[in-house]
Amino acid sequence: MDLETIQHPGFLKSYSRKQLDELAEEIRSFLISKLSATGGHLGPNLGVVELTLMLHKLYDSPKDKIIWDVGHQTYVHKILTGRADRFDTLKQYQGLCGYAKRDESEHDVWEAGHSSTSLSAAMGMATARDLQGEDFNVLPVIGDGALTGGMALEAMNHIGHEQTDMTVILNDNEMSIAPNVGAMHNMLGRLRTTGGYRRTKEDIEYLVKKIPAFGGALSSTAERLKGSLKYLLVSGVFFEEMGFTYLGPIDGHNFDELHSNLTYAIRTKGPVLLHVVTKKGKGYKPAEDDASGAWHGPGPYKIESGDMIKKAGPPAYSAVFSNTLAKIAEQDQRLVALTAAMPGGTKLDQFAKTFPERMYDVGIAEQHATTMAGGLSTQGMKPVFGVYSTFLQRGYDQLVHDVCRQNLNVVFGIDRSGLVGGDGETHQGVFDIAYLRHLPNMKIVIPKDENELQHMINTAVANDDGPMAVRFPRGNGLGVEMDESLKVLPVGEWPVEQQGKDAVILAFSTMLPIANEAASQLNKRGISVRVVNANSVKPLDEKQLDHIAQENIPILTMEEAVLKGGFGSAVLEYLNDQNHIGVQVKRMGLPDRYIEHGSPSSWYEELGLTADEAARSIYEMVPRKRQRA
Ligand SMILES: Cc1ncc(C[n+]2csc(CCOP(=O)(O)OP(=O)(O)O)c2C)c(N)n1
Ligand SMILES: CC(=O)[C@@H](O)[C@H](O)COP(=O)(O)O
Ligand SMILES: [Mg+2]
Questions:
Q1: Which domain of life is it from (predicted)?
Q2: How far is CA 333 from CA 105, 151, 412, 487, 571, in A?
């Protein structure tokens, strides 16, 4: 079948088992081929081919609500809902989104990107259905990794209490991005090995019914037997005790098992949890054999060999972060590294190779990691939480309530700050300056390159005056020379990159090269522009701002972060509070909207974060008398 002709999954209703097998094969070849050029979440999607086909065969999307947790495993769903022809544009600027996207299709009933939201969304939809007297099925699909996210437990607690009709499909492939971790994961492991509880429970019920009721005595004994047997058997009882009918574990690649269990689930009142066991990367050996998570979301690769097509270049910022921590940890026994299920992305898995006892992967639990870091700090340890900017949003109250308010010595290594590219809206690291800067006691430093990053990490670990965030971008450094020994840098003293007397640009990180380019354009036009590496957002370099105000020259601030509440706002606030009235300030940064997928450079063009725009802004502010032709 030409997958690109599919417009709606309804055709599956009449599909035989043989046709399903053939279609599954075609979809796998399609994914392996398309993603070899574009990159994308190959492993997760190869693992849900049969599950997605059976869901769309048995249920009527979009009337029945199929909700995908994280949403990175929706490629098969997108193929079946008329989007196969867009896969050449996957995760690219104005191309196909790599996650569920409501404005892409009516079949995408819920958007995600961040993990563990599907059960709460499902509860919302099912509750609305019941209040409105509607009739449809609600089917959240949640992975074993996402189940380690606290929100999932909050939702289960409520769903089990309300006994709301829905079928939760737990897609258990033993992997988060890296191998899954935690007690929940261990429990699922026992379930996978000891087989299903469902049959035994029915056998017991059958037995209890067979026993003549001697005044009810025997049946109560049998009831007690059933109860103790339940606890003796497997921890499927965890789900049962949470109020779910637990089904499984079943083979998530077996159409017959999927069909019979989903059919049973449709007929079952109240919440059902169907535990399906799948193989991440199924059908493509390099991805099936992936032990580290490299095939969770690879870039382009060679199909035959499974070799990734990597561009050589300077070290990744994440690698500099991890290597610097390892260097410090050799001397400083206080240092402990934490990650929330991102050991590979943060490269803390490299740190763990040297210091396995001082690196903790807490699962998808950023709230827990943030507060655990606070606890570590109260006992004199020096915790460093390596976390993506976007995922630290999950730990906001813990930042406020637990770490900053108590002024605890915690370092936040904030990776993927700024625009991240293909993962788009749900992953942009653009709110962190705004969500950190207003927290009393928090300090925020932002290195301009990989060399300044290593020194800032060292500075943050050495700092014993409360929490400090070191914010750095996704991807590779600039290829600058790395100093041999680590320094402790002054915080709140901005280095001047190039002198100038007519105007000043305050910029940091990825905006600094653009600022330098704008300055050289204007210098050629006789306008002398100073460029300052504003490498700390909190504290500001107040001395330097006072001096600029006294010179009364215009200021342009530049940041790859939202303008509202960002660095430029901080400068405006300071100048106003110090009565430096009349100083001209223009701010360049991200507008008040969500930035979709696409390379940062494409967005720089669209959003005007360019040297030409910066030069134009300055030119408009420099008083005519200074302008020479
Ligand atoms: C709050 C949050 N933290 C971290 C991530 C990064 N992340 C993306 S997918 C993933 C693993 C999800 O594992 P699982 O739910 O088992 O899905 P699978 O990829 O195995 O199908 C993680 C940790 C995220 N999306 N959201
Ligand atoms: C789905 C998800 O959240 C992760 O897989 C994410 O795509 C990782 O992003 P990086 O590629 O920046 O590590
Ligand atoms: Mg998984």
A1: Bacteria
A2: 52, 34, 18, 18, 38
pLDDT in tens, 371-398: 999 999 999 999 999 999 999 999 999 9
- Domain spans of the chain? 18-209+216-288, 317-473, 496-621
For residue 111 and ligand 2, the question of a CB distance below 6 A is answered with no
Q: How far apart are CA 460 and CA 486, in angstroms?
A: 12
Distance CA 400, CA 213 (A): 60
| Residues in contact with 294: Cβ distance below 8 Å, sequence separation at least 6, in sequence order | 308, 344
User: What is the number of the ligand 1 atom nearest to the C-alpha of 172?
Assistant: 16
Angle between helices 567-577 and 542-551 (to 10 degrees): 70
User: Which residues are annotated as part of the binding site for thiamine diphosphate?
Assistant: 72, 113-115, 145-146, 173, 284, 366
Q: Cβ(36)–Cβ(238) under 8 Å?
A: no
Cα 169 to Cα 191: distance, rounded to the nearest angstrom = 15
* Residues with active-site annotation: 280, 366, 394
Edge-to-edge order in the sheet of strand 359-361 = 359-361, 335-339, 382-388, 411-417, 468-473, 443-445, 536-538
Q: What is the CATH number of domain 317-473?
A: 3.40.50.970
Question: How far apart (Å, rounded) are the C-alpha atoms in residues 340 and 145?
Answer: 11
**Residues 199-213 pLDDT 10s:** 555 665 665 566 555
Q: Show the CA angle centred on residue 106, arms to residues 102 and 110, nearest 5°.
A: 40
Top-tier CATH class for 496-621: alpha beta
Q: Pick the atom of ligand 2 nearest to 72's CA.
A: 1
The CATH architecture that domain 18-209+216-288 belongs to is: 3-Layer(aba) Sandwich (3.40)
Q: Decide whether 18-209+216-288 matches 317-473 in CATH topology.
A: yes
ipTM of the complex: 0.99
Ligand 2 contact via 423 beta carbon (within 6 Å): yes
The pair of structure tokens assigned to 478 is: 């600039």
pTM listed for this prediction: 0.94
